[in-house]
Amino acid sequence: MRHLVVILGDQLSLNLSALKSFDRAQDQVLMMEVSAEAHYAPHHKQKIAFILSAMRHFAMALRAKGYKVRYISLDHPENTGSFSSEVERAWRDLSPQKLIVTEPGEHRVREMIAAWPARFDIAVEVRPDDRFFCTRAGFRDWAKGRKSYRMEYFYREMRRRTGLLMEGDKPMGGQWNFDSENRKALPKDLRPPQRYPHKPDAITRGVLTLVESHFPNHFGTLKAFNWAVTREGALAELDHFITHRLSQFGDYQDAMSARAPFVYHALIAPYLNIGLLDPREVCQRAEAAYAAGDAPLNAVEGFIRQILGWREYVRGLYDYLMPDYGETNALEAHRPLPDFYWTAKTPMRCLATTIANTRDHAYAHHIQRLMITGNFALLAGLDPKAVGAWYLGVYADAFEWVELPNTHAMALFADGGVLGSKPYAASGAYIERMSDYCTGCAFDPKVRTGPKACPFTFLYWDFLARHQERFKGNRRMALAYRNLERMDTETLQGVRDQAQTFLNDPDGYGAPQSGQKCLFD
Ligand code: DLZ
Ligand code: SF4
Is the N or C terminus of the chain more exposed, i.e. has fewer CB atoms within 10 Å? Predict the structure, then answer.
């Protein structure tokens, strides 16, 4: 045999670099369902099912095109359970002259592959992953020598390089960024469209049964599984977004609602991240919708910025700064994750709703992730590694290259400001403004102390006071510190005492006493 082409579960694209120059007569593809990949993070059941079903459908699509595929399913009797041991078994069985693989996204897997040449005593060709606008070298060139790496500058450079939303060398509409228009709360009478339905076929149904029996104790439910597992399904979901959601996406990008968990979001990140969609086609579709007059510029620019700007930027930064980047803990946050991150049982309605959405759909949108679960973790001083493992496990789209910069750096400020210029700390007032969570909550966002006090509010003031030395000189936090200084000593002490009581037992805080009605049933 000539080449053994290894395809990982997030590389499901027929245009994958590892497949270029594939000779159907002499080469073979290897795909492996391995338990080690299901266990390195506490993956949500839907995430495992999504990846395994998409892998099985992709293997079918390859075979239909005449590729020979060695596909090792999770319950294959000889499955040894890890990438390296399965590659070793294939290498013994097939004696290839060379292994070919597209560079994996995660540092952990890159290191694994770096050990293969010595382990198997054969050539291993690692090809660049070209499913991105910006190459690794391109990002390094941009980042080299800079004191700080602000996304906004990288994004402008990418707009210029790709010509997306450009009029000559000027941004379309005369502005690079329309974010100030994209912060509306969802009006009560507005009903975002239903999610696009993906009916599970026999393969997906088989995988759902397999996952339930192999991973019964993993987080999450499979009941509402509704992910595309083929390129056709992913394209249908993209179409649905462009036609029914994109035009409102901008306005309500930051809105949160207990009655509309998906608001106007696209729900395509899982497909982009495993290769079912390509970021170039996605941005071109959005740009075309603007050109056709079907969606306004604030929506289209906001959407394209997420993909052309933010997604490429976090990938570049991860690559540039790992592995040390994941080890920082600038705010010395060491508290364990409260149990309610797994159970959704807390009287804080914003957290209970976001975590219940996560449990039911392996999804929460970016503001829920940043300003509810992330903001809480920042304010409460939760350990960045524990928080990172949670995010990496519970979201269908999470792979470390995208998850780590978003969680570790943006949400938790654990990198001390390499990515962002200030922490995204916010009190209950922000959550009340941007959501309908506070109505019906046991707490009141305006109250700072006493039984009705909102934990986000007293934790926010406690966070500012705790980190005063570090942040008081930060220009972007000047207003917050002026407000803190206006608070009299006694009030501040009361707020800090209440924060301490809360932090001593976040799971027990506000729980019903015997005889009282349970707040979260
Ligand atoms: C996340 C995941 C899971 C749960 N299972 C598999 C699997 O069985 N086989 C596989 O090839 N990939 C899986 N993945 C995705 C990998 O973790 C992903 O390819 C690497 O993290 C990329 O660096
Ligand atoms: Fe969350 Fe506080 Fe609002 Fe309750 S009152 S939903 S805890 S922000």
Answer: C
